[in-house]
Amino acid sequence: MKAVHFGAGNIGRGFIGHMLSASDYDVCFVARNPKKISMLQQRQEYPITLANKQQDTTIVNNVTAINVNEQRRVAEEIASADLITTAVGVSALGDIAEPIAKGIYLRMKANNYNPLHIIACENAIGGSTRLKKRIYPFLDERTRAKAERYISFPNAAVDRIVPAQNHEDPLQVTVEPFYEWVVHRPALLDGFKEIHGVHYVDSLEPYIERKMFTVNTGHCVAAYLGYLAGFRTIRQVMSNSTLRAKVRHVMEETGAMLIRKHGFDTEKHQKYIDTILERFANPNLTDQVTRVARSPLRKLSPHDRLVRPAMQASEFGIAIPHLTSAMAAAMLFDDKRDEEAMKMQHIIRENGLSSFIHDRMGIPEEHPVHQQVLTRYEELQRSKINAVLT
Ligand SMILES: NC(=O)c1ccc[n+]([C@@H]2O[C@H](COP(=O)([O-])OP(=O)(O)OC[C@H]3O[C@@H](n4cnc5c(N)ncnc54)[C@H](O)[C@@H]3O)[C@@H](O)[C@H]2O)c1
Ligand SMILES: O=P(O)(O)OC[C@@H](O)[C@@H](O)[C@H](O)[C@H](O)CO
User: Fold this and answer.
1) Whose CA is nearest to atom 7 of ligand 2?
2) 88 lines ligand 1 (CB under 6 A)
3) Ligand 1 center to residue 89 CA distance, Å?
C-alpha cells in the first residue's frame, strides 16, 4: 500500500511518516526542502528518537520523497496512492489543493477506482473537510462526481509534541513518547488499510475539542505568558510555579466547558490535564516558546484554541478569567521573526484593539468576553512581567 504525505517537517517525519511506515505503507513525502528530499531519496530511512531518559532511537524505513514543484510526478504518485496525509500547517492547505486535484484528475482518467483516503493531520477542527473544500474547485464536474464516490476525507485529531529539530543529521527527529491519532471511522471506505495505533471513533468532535482545547490551549498559554515573562523554552515556563498554575487554571476553565458539553468524567479529565502538564514539563524535550506561540492570528481566530472554547464556556455561564487573560497575552505576542505576530501588531496599531477583537477574533462588541479581553489586555500592557508573574 502506498501513502503520499505532504510536508516532511516535524510532525510529518516525527509522527505520521513513522506510523504509516510501521503499518507497512510505503511512504512518499511531498516536500519543499531540496536537501531533505535528496537525503530521503538516497537513504530511504531516517532515525526517530524518543525524548525519554534512554533516548531510544528507531529507524523509520520504506520512505522516499519528491519535490512539490515536480507537478507531474506528484500527480502520478497521487494517481496510484491508497492514502494521502498532510502536515503542512492549516494555512498552507490552500497551497497543496491544486497539486492534489491534478493527481485526482489523473487517477480518475486512468479509471483507478480503488478507495483513496485523504487525511489532514493539522491542528484544526475539520481539517480534512477544509482541504476537500479547497481541492474541489480545481476539479471538473465529472471528476468531482467520481471523487464523491471513490475518495473520502476523514477528519482527524493528532497529538504528539515534536519541537523544532537541531540534529547534525537533518533527517533525525526527536519526539515525545506520548502520541494519539484519532480518525473519524464513519468516513472510511471499504478497503481502507488500517494504520496500527490509530484510534478510530464514531464521533470525532469530543476528541478533537478535548485535544485542541486542552493540549493546544494550555500549550499556547504557556507560550504567550512565558514570552511576556522572558522565558525561552516551554520547560522553563513549566518550572515556574506561578506560570504553571496559570496554565492549569486555563485548562480547568476549558475543562469545565468540555465536561459540560461532552459529558466527560470529571476525575478522568483532571488526570488528562495532569498528564498534559507533565508532557509540557518533559525534562528531555526542548521546545521553544516561539514555536508554540507561532502564528497568533491563526491561534486567535474564531474557531481555534482560544476564542472557540471561550465563547462556548461563556454560553454555559462558566467564568473564564484566566482564559481571557491568556487571549490578551496572545495579543501582546510581538516576536519580530513571526510574520503573523508582526501583522497582528500592525492591525492592532492601525485599527485599535476593539476592532481587532471584533473583526479577527469574531467576538462582537456587546459580548461580555469582548470587554473582559480588553480589560485584561490593558492591565497586562501596563505591567507586562509583573502581571504575568503574580
Ligand atoms: N509539531 C507538533 O508538535 C505538532 C503536533 C500535532 C500537530 N501539528 C500540526 O502539524 C502541522 C505541521 O506542523 P509541524 O510542527 O510539523 O511544522 P513544520 O514547519 O515542522 O512542518 C511543516 C512542513 O510542511 C512543509 N510545507 C509547507 N508548505 C508546503 C507545501 N506547499 N508543499 C509541501 N510541503 C510544504 C514545510 O516545508 C515543512 O517542512 C501543523 O498543522 C501543526 O499544527 C504539529
Ligand atoms: O502547531 P501549532 O502552531 O498549531 O501549535 C503549536 C503546538 O501547540 C503544537 O504543535 C503541539 O506541539 C501539538 O499540537 C501537540 O500535539
Assistant:
1) 292
2) yes
3) 5
Looking at the fold, whether 186 and 209 belong to one and the same domain comes out as no
Cα 317 vs. chain centroid, distance in angstroms? 28
Q: How far is the CA of 159 from the centre of ligand 1 (A)?
A: 13
Ligand 1 mean position, distance from CA 9 (Å): 5
How far apart are the C-alpha atoms of 93 and 89, rounded to whole Å? Answer: 7
Sign of the alpha-carbon dihedral angle for 8, 9, 13, 19: negative
Q: What count of Cα atoms within 13 Å lies in the side-chain half-sphere of residue 371?
A: 4
What pLDDT, in 10s, does the model give residues 163-181?
999 999 999 999 999 999 9
Q: Model pTM?
A: 0.97
Rounded distance between C-alpha atoms, residue 235 and residue 281, angstroms: 5
Last residue of a domain, one of 154, 182, 201: 201
- Rounded CA-CA distance 25/200 in Å is 18
Structural domain for 283, as ranges: 205-389
Q: Are residues 193 and 224 in the same domain?
A: no
| Residue 382: per-residue pLDDT | 83
